[in-house]
């Protein structure tokens, strides 16, 4: 089922060198799809929303 909130917090703090205040997660269930005569389900996935300490920033694209 993926990482839990503690693992997400530790990973973000270690990789981006910021202080995490709060982590919220939500699970989305996969959808049923049909291609011609075959039916299948897309995988379930988890999304995390991370709140940082005021003043901290994550630079995604710096060029």
**Approximately how much beta-strand content do the residues carry?**
35-45%
What is the molecular shape? elongated
- Biggest sheet, open or closed, and with what strands and sense? 2 strands, antiparallel
The CATH class assignment is Alpha Beta
Q: Catalogue the unreliable spans.
A: none
In short:
With 63 residues, the protein is α+β, with helices and mostly antiparallel strands. Helices cover 19% and strands 40% of the residues.
Notes on the protein architecture:
This protein has one helix at residues 5-16, and strands at 20-28, 32-35, 38-41, 45-52. With 63 residues, it is an alpha+beta fold. Strands 1-4 form a two-stranded antiparallel ribbon. A hairpin with a 2-residue loop joins strand 2 (32-35) and strand 3. The chain is elongated.
Keywords:
63 residues; alpha+beta; Alpha-Beta Plaits; two-stranded antiparallel sheet; 1 helix; 40% strand; elongated
Write the topology of this structure.
Elements (H helix, E strand, L loop, with lengths): L4 H12 L3 E9 L3 E4 L2 E4 L3 E8 L11
Antiparallel strand pairs: 1-4, 2-3
